[in-house]
Amino acid sequence: MLSKAVKPSVIKNIINKGAVRTVTSLVPGEPNGPSVKTEIPGPRSKELIKELSAIQQSNAVQFFADYEKSLGNYIVDADGNVMLDAYTQISSMPLGYNHPNLLKVFNNDKNMRTLINRPALGVFPGEDWPKKLKDVLLAVSPNLPNVTTMMCGSCSNENAYKNLFIAYRRNERGENVSFTEEENASCMINQAPGAPKLSILSFHGAFHGRTLGVLATTHSKAIHKLDIPSFDWPIAHFPQYKYPLADNVRENAEEDKKCLAEVEDLIVTYKKKGIPVAGIVIEPIQSEGGDNEASPEFFQQLQRIAKKHGAGLLIDEVQTGGGPTGKMWCHEHFNLETPPDIVTFSKKMQIGGYFHNLEMQPATPYRIFNTWMGDPGKMLIVEEILKVVKQQNLLDVVNKTGLKLKSGLEQLQNEFPALLNSVRGRGTFLAMNAANTKLRDDLVNRMKQKGIQSGGCGEISIRLRPALIFQEHHADIFLDTFRQVLKETK
Amino acid sequence: MLSKAVKPSVIKNIINKGAVRTVTSLVPGEPNGPSVKTEIPGPRSKELIKELSAIQQSNAVQFFADYEKSLGNYIVDADGNVMLDAYTQISSMPLGYNHPNLLKVFNNDKNMRTLINRPALGVFPGEDWPKKLKDVLLAVSPNLPNVTTMMCGSCSNENAYKNLFIAYRRNERGENVSFTEEENASCMINQAPGAPKLSILSFHGAFHGRTLGVLATTHSKAIHKLDIPSFDWPIAHFPQYKYPLADNVRENAEEDKKCLAEVEDLIVTYKKKGIPVAGIVIEPIQSEGGDNEASPEFFQQLQRIAKKHGAGLLIDEVQTGGGPTGKMWCHEHFNLETPPDIVTFSKKMQIGGYFHNLEMQPATPYRIFNTWMGDPGKMLIVEEILKVVKQQNLLDVVNKTGLKLKSGLEQLQNEFPALLNSVRGRGTFLAMNAANTKLRDDLVNRMKQKGIQSGGCGEISIRLRPALIFQEHHADIFLDTFRQVLKETK
């Protein structure tokens, strides 16, 4: 068994800007670059899309992948096209495909038994579970002492909202005060006071998942929300900055102020309305909604407002967490006075869940509970991922690649100002705006036809969500192809 | 690689009622019976509970398990106690622990790559995904042509509710009528008409999960719902039968009628109230709420009422599905005129999801969507589970064991009428009432101290949720120990 990360030992020659360079790939055996044989989706993918359409709604499928042949930053599709993947399954493959360390995690009888004997973790956890929680998850906690595991991002946010409601009511009720008979009876029929009118304040453009509770705080695209009943919960404006940031400092600070004032207004209004705000949920960078950033000062002030009004602060790091911004958690860029009350994760972490402080811990069991409460099999995978991240200093790789990628994109927006603007982001968690939606979709598609997978977000944005093993030579390939695509744009 | 199910080849001698009998266990090497060395939880479990309590709320933990040593129907705890498990991780281990076939699933490079390269299934599925959906899941579909995969039971129900809302609004709006500008705008701020006032009708005593949408239809215990805001959705009474059923036919038929009339009343009332019922959700046997059964006639009538009022019928088979009632899906006992519109599953199926008819398929993509949309690694596990179920005729085993277990329990309720009553259920999915809550908790605990794991449900019920490999000799052990515990009850 290989317990250490594979060393970046494979040296390759790639052609970049006409010159042959020697580069070292972190995943041995990676292709030298994309190689496209058919349109994408190709004939085999189209056949499979047809087959899948007989079984489920499948119009979102872009292509079928060959996960046996995919490697590192390269995804291979069913038609044999090799693409450089700067989107990585909507930001959820930190080590890319078929990483040699991950292939070995279950070459181990104990781990295999952990995988197949999936317990009800809240009732019958395995002997090693506390140690895993401590050594794997708490080892990367943003200074929060508790962690609760779940299955996915939506469930993590849903349950975290419940912690916020429970904590808010405990504060109102007083510590150790038990439930009234009226509360016990009324909650069973969905009525106050047992099921109280409480709210979570969210932001326009936010995405926190699609199950009914979190969907009430998601406001990125109408198609996610149409026809689904929702809650009357307050929604504030998220700052919309002017770019480049350095040239718009005053306006953007004004924008922060305006949005923060609205948050405070809404908290007061909803309290009066009889639907108090128990918590505020926010992404460090609004991802699905268009990669909208806000300043550290905005987040610092937001936390002060939350504390002032007795609302918990939940930072949703489902998409930003796990390293792509150059820190393990994006909000660590913000220098908050204290950690947020709750930080949710999923995607790159493989297992869902959230870190939280002791105030958010319910005093009694079964309030935050479900059959599985996460999955020890996924814990073994994230354990190995985090080992590799540490041993190969992948956060440094992210920062190094990110600098090159961002400055390359900035150069492109200067070269093509009619097509691109507002390059932004941290680490390799980068985005830019296209002039309009049609152009954005066209650019993403033509990049794909040249073997580069990126993604859209918001109305007009292109987002990059590469793996943490995306290196400078991958950035070069991305930028060169992007320049070519922009040049070919009519 | 072992592609066929392991044959039940191990012959053992067990002592039953004083006589040595020869029995054949479906999982080779299973212990002969429970063996208890310490109180449960023992000292090691208590130590670990303390350790876990520093990391999360952990008062629901019963003991820590040793998943390396557990085998078949026997769970071994961290103190070396061997228990016969008739609860199996809240009904989610169909083949028990460390089944030899499951240990081999990932001894296969292709399967290992499927496990670690977890895709965003809605966008970049693997080549073999349509075939897996067809060969594994649709092969056991209750005559429904579509299947959508998810991560867990709550997410499956949450998303299925969305299908119900979408289908209901499409019927109201007319096929191929697109969304109005007002709908597109209003849904983004959680308001009608885009986010309409629609409801799901549920039943008192029901359990459909704990995220906010499904929690509005869960009514089994106050502690699940206290302090969490909810929806004003209609709740009908689920039939409460008198036992034995054979002696109470007239009263129970009256009870059906009363409950069905209430369902129809509520549909009419909520329509008038401006919160129309888009769907009805029901468990074939209310599990968490106390193993409450309803008759096939009740379900047939309920379906007629749903159809009459244009509401979809969702049967939640998260706990009942996958074989424990002696059929793959419990509602197949009901002889419905047509299949339900949606059937949700999780637990024993390892992967979450739902079968549905074509009316429930949204016309456009991204309406039922999330990053992972299930997990191909779990699909490989359920594939092997279903192979073993078929090859070893485990539904027959369930029916045979169930008969013995049920008649044994009936005998015990006759012997101890002051302690036990209302034995009920199908297959090995069985339950009974204790005279009161204190006695119920005491019986479950004393059974555990003698090495038998069962579970409580509702206020006064004990539920059995053994694996599908629970055989007659396991039933004997269960019944003998239970008789002893009942005898020792003061």
UniProtKB/TrEMBL annotation, chains A, B:
Its EC number is 2.6.1.19, 2.6.1.22. Pfam families: Aminotran_3 (PF00202). GO terms for molecular function: transaminase activity. CDD domains: OAT_like. It comes from the Eukaryota. Keywords: Aminotransferase, Pyridoxal phosphate, Transferase. Its cofactor is pyridoxal 5'-phosphate. Belongs to the class-III pyridoxal-phosphate-dependent aminotransferase family. This is (S)-3-amino-2-methylpropionate transaminase.
